[in-house]
Amino acid sequence: MIPDFRKKTIVVVGAGRTGLALTRFFLDRGAKVVLSDSRPAGRIIGLEELDGSGVALDLGGHTPSLFKGADLVAISPGVPLTVPAVAEAMAAGVQVAGEVDIAFGELRAPLVGVTGTNGKSTTTVLMGSVFETWGKKVFVGGNLGTPVIEAVERPWDWLVVELSSFQLEAIRDFRPRYGLLLNISEDHLDRYPDMAAYVAAKMRMFENMSAGDVAVLNAEDPMVVELAGILRPGKVWFSSQRVLERGMGCEGREIVWRMEGVEERFAVDDLRLKGEHNVENVMAALIPPLLEGCPPRTAWRAVCAFAGLEHRMEVVRTLDGVTWYNDSKGTNVGSVVKSLAGLAAPVTLIAGGRDKGGDYAPLAAALQDKVTRLVLIGEAAGRLEAALGDLAHTSRAASLQEAVYRARELTPVGGSVLFSPGCSSFDMFANFAERGRAFTRAVMELPEREAV
Questions:
Q1: Residue 272 counted as domain residue
Q2: What's the pLDDT score for residue 334?
């Protein structure tokens, strides 16, 4: 990484929240900044924040000559390395770096990186709560919201960072003290040519870690177990199915922590979070703080106080005997499977959105056990119906609001409605949060039925 940004020409690619934060970071350090985005100015939120800053704008497309003439091209997570202007700059020898790597070069506190296909956000926030309850000044961010670059030059004790495969693609120097790999299943195959490329992006988190660092790994995920053999850092495992001689395991309704001759037991029923997948998230979140000396009861108190994230199995309301769940953050098939596992039949599932190229077949068993009604929306509705339409009463809706109305008519008293799309939001919404808010608003607007 360039040691001094003063008077350097830096192209920041992507004008979302991360790109704007990167732009401010480089301007504050005396760089000459070009902000490049494929969208025109009218479609970019927050661009007015840079008025008068001296930043040059390259909007409505990417100008290759600007990229090839830069000292550094800094890319936002949503920007693939295959964007022609970026690829040409790399071929010309221009240094290309992602936001996480740029921030890491400026950070002085130890960092925990959390990746995997599902559970990243919950685990990241849980661990941040543990460190905070322990009295540590902790930054919690990354893929779940606050860009890591905004953590620079502040006196943190720890940083807990959610990392997507997109963020990990462009790292060079990034090296966390702890690296968590929660699970791996199909996702983002609209961006990657195959599953191997997606996995390779995830595994980049570990490439600079050494034997003195720690990988925290899921012993019940077959792909994680297979990949563990190539990792250099020390390994600590967690398992929701069995007790481990060294690590975090389960025995009945107790979580059992064993490390260096010490055993601690925690009652699963104390948790506000429900579902086996959340037990795994809790176990993973506990391991780094416990290894760093956090008192076990302090750590347990923190995770027991956590009620869950917005848009992740969030109970919206119970109306006329039907419970409605907002799981808009369920953007892949594995996430939907885990969410269904925590519910009892009959379930009406609202799913669909922009197709990510994955296989919907793994949903079949979950639907057969739980789902009696399936309401499909968005661009992926056709693929979903072809794969799953024979397993439940299936209908399509032209909008999310219509899907809510349809689900209300279809779901019997005692059932539940789960909005877990299994797809990205970008066909109808700006992001999963906007989609989740739209669902919640539509559900809250439903009137109670009049008593007969």
A1: yes
A2: 84
423/328 Cα distance (integer angstroms): 9
In the chain, how many H helices and how many E strands?
15, 20
Structure tokens that stand for 344 in this block: 């009892």
pTM of the predicted structure, to 2 decimals: 0.81
- Domain range for residue 408? 314-444
**E-only strand ranges, 93-157:** 95-98, 111-115, 138-142
Q: Comparing 74-78, 91-95, 121-125, 306-310, which segment has the lowest mean pLDDT? A: 306-310
The mean per-residue pLDDT over the stretch 268-291 comes to 92
Does residue 129 share a domain with residue 243?
Answer: yes
Q: What is the CATH number of the domain that holds 339?
A: 3.90.190.20
**First-last CA distance in the chain:** 71
Q: What are phi and psi of 75, to 5 degrees?
A: -105, 145
When divided into structural domains, the chain yields a total of 3
pLDDT tens per residue, range 32-73 = 999 999 999 988 988 998 988 999 999 999 999 999 999 999
**Last residue of a domain, which of 93, 124, 157?**
93
In a domain, 449, yes or no: no
**In-domain check, residue 261:** yes
**Cα 20 from chain centroid (whole Å):** 20
The residues pairing with 216 across neighbouring beta strands, listed in sequence order, are 180, 236
Same domain, 156 and 180: yes
